[in-house]
Amino acid sequence: MHLRSLPMALFIVLVVCLSCLILFSLWNRRHAKGKLPPGPTPLPIIGNILQLDIKDIAKSLSILAKDYGPVFTVHFGMKPTVVLCGYEAVKEALIDRAEEFSGRGSYPVIDHIFQGLGMIVFWGNVLGLIRSPCDPTFLLSCVPCNVIVSVIFRNRFDYGDEKFHSLIHYFHENFRLVSTPWIQLYNFFPSLHYFPGSHNELFKNIANQKKFIMEKVKEHQESLDINNPQDFIDYFLIKMEKEKHNKQSDFTMDNLIITIWDLFSAGTETTSTTMKYGLLLLLKHPEVSAKVQEEIERVIGRDRSPCMQDRSRMPYTDAVLHEIQRYINLLPINLPHTVTQDVKFREYIFPKGTEIMVSLTSLLYDEKEFPNPQKFDPGHFLDESGNFKKSDHFMAFSAGKQALINYSLINIFINSVLFKPPRVITEK
Which positions, given as ranges, span the membrane (predicted)? Predict the structure, then answer.
């Protein structure tokens, strides 16, 4: 009986091996017309997954860049992705040739939910938060969230509103979940959708958020005055009505719901997390806090509200804000891009649709641009005279069109935290 089963076992092994070879051949043929940069040799089906630390992909890519240079290819599963590291390569792609590299890359765990609708997807990296006797997490989440709420829903929430609490809780949970190793694996192998895992919790959270948003949209539909729109939803609904016969229109109810979710998810958690770590860094470096407070007292004082014109007269505070974002490295890997056409990039050829991954860590922790990058030092953004020094390497979120998001984040950070009464940042 044992001898009879042996040929069958060998047959199964041969079938599996042959299937892998066929899949690998099809995989290579699919990208044969391009000339992608070299990289670590991938295995059939799983690609380079065994050579990457899914808990810290950014670090793995930095290590690979030392062997393969600033432009190399990594296979996430069967999908080849070109990785760009260092200022020169990133600038050449995202700034000098922005249109060619402006395609939106896939992020399977979110694509499954939103089916390509909305404006953005968020890929965060959760840093270990040091616990304080006074945890300002909730309040720091309320501030940016309510700013966005006022634009989208017209009215702000009371901080005691239970629905508001639930909304913010979901943002915290989503931010944590998308940073887990399981979600990273899901993005490499979307077929994991059929297995139990944290992706199901993420899907449930976002479904509840979409339900909340839909309730608000219905309220707006009932009270809509087309001659007197009050907020983002009103304007969107009016545009929907005007284009209701256009089957190609992007102004649909599904897109409205998901766009609102995009605005919330992109603005709330990133801003509040930056503020949390900003306060922790100021507490850890009281000498920096003292200089910030002195500048605020001298330029603004206590008898008036700050204005944007004050920013140019506060170089040290501006430098501190930039250094906080550089140091915490909130988004170590940029949102995935694709090339919109066949692109000749340096000595390589990227076929249309090739995914591009940008290591922002390689810019923010560049030792030539920021000496001793592991140290928190506002001097990284100050010249010898104490004036603010702009750095082209500062791409805390991205470059090109995405720079607007970064600029908005800095402005919210300024108005939400450092321009509050100075006692807050020095009180023990």
Answer: 6-27
Q: What is the pLDDT of residues 336-365, one digit of tens each?
A: 788 889 989 888 999 988 888 888 899 999
Which pLDDT score, from 0 to 100, does residue 282 have?
A: 93
What letter does residue 106 receive in the DSSP assignment? P
User: Rounded to 5 degrees, what angle do the CA atoms 157, 161, 163 make?
Assistant: 95
Look up tokens 């979409």; give the residue: 210
Cβ count near 99 (within 10 Å): 11
Q: Provide the sign of the torsion angle of the four alpha carbons 170, 173, 179, 180, taken in this order.
A: negative
What radius of gyration, in Å, describes the C-alpha atoms of the chain?
A: 24
- Which residue has tokens 């990457």? 52
Could you tell me what percentage of the chain is helix, strand and coil, using 3-state DSSP and rounding each to the nearest 5?
Answer: 55, 10, 35
Provide the mean pLDDT of the chain: 79
Whether the Cβ atoms of residue 197 and residue 180 lie closer than 8 Å to each other: no
Q: Which helix (H) or strand (E) holds 359?
A: strand 355-359
Which helix (H) or strand (E) is 71 found in, with range?
strand 71-76
CB-CB contact of 301 with 314 (8 Å): no
Residue in the block written with tokens 């949970």: 173
Give 38's DSSP letter. P
Rounded-to-integer distance, Cα 219 and Cα 216, Å: 5
What long-range pairs does 61-64 form, CB within 8 A, spacing at least 24? Answer: 61/85, 61/333, 61/357, 61/359, 61/361, 61/362, 62/359, 62/361, 62/362, 64/39, 64/40
- Where does residue 289 rank: exposed (0-12), middle (13-18), buried (19+ CB within 10 A)? buried
Structure confidence by residue, pLDDT tens digits, 137-163: 778 888 888 888 888 888 888 888 888
Query: Per DSSP, what are the bridge partners of residue 83?
Result: 72, 357
Q: What is the helix (H) or strand (E) element at residue 72, kind and residue range?
A: strand 71-76
Supply the pTM of this predicted model: 0.70
271, 336, 198, 46: CA torsion to nearest 10: -150
In sequence order, the β-bridge partners of residue 71 are 84
Token pair in block for residue 358: 């940008």
